[in-house]
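Fig. S4 source data, part A: sequence.
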Amino acid sequence: MSQNSNLFLSIGKPVKDEYGRVIGKIATFAVTPSGKFDSVFIERGDGRFGKYSTEHLQVEGADAILLSKLKSDTSVFCDQIPLLWRKDQALKGLSDKKKISPELYKELHTSFEGALTQLKTDAQSLSEEVNAEIKRCEGETKELNYALVHLEIEHEIGKIDDQNYEKAFTLIQENLKVINIEKADLEATKIKIANILLGDTSKAFELGTNKAKTEAAKEPTYTSPELPEPPVVVYVKEIGKAGI
């Protein structure tokens, strides 16, 4: 969060996620007894309120952005896991050089090992959350493609005029693009977590960032379907008792 002693001046300001989608507007803040901004209350579009940590809120001028908790937590793990591993290695070096007693080494090593195991367990759970979000994006992409197909059909048979067709088509395509960017971002986050769990911190950011840039540059995967020619309808006049 950008520190600002006048964050209360942001009340009523629209809040977007990091992909530009409007979440709601700032209702108020929770402040600790020491005066630190702790939480932000956001009124969502459906009228419900959500409470979020101000650590995930960025307020810069007219813009208020709520950052992804998943990405924020991933950054924490990417910092803490390698740091603990390096501390444990340094501790082993001190033990090998006989600079600390075996008893003290064992105690501290057990402490570092336990903390590292817990962080890896938490990181694995975070990876599962990321997978769930990726599946959500895939589901939304599928639904938007269905919406486009129905739009094409209704436009083809003349139920939707050209002006409204263009508006709807543009709106859905813009949403598809945003979801593609979000999905690429989540997949990059998944790569970071996987590499951290494998101990490769250097590739975690490089691979994740490159994949996000590549995927974000892609256009939505939807292509307008080829609709079949209208069927030929034959009307047959019913013959009465007297015939023709």
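Fig. S4 source data, part B ends here. The first helix runs from residue 69 to 96.
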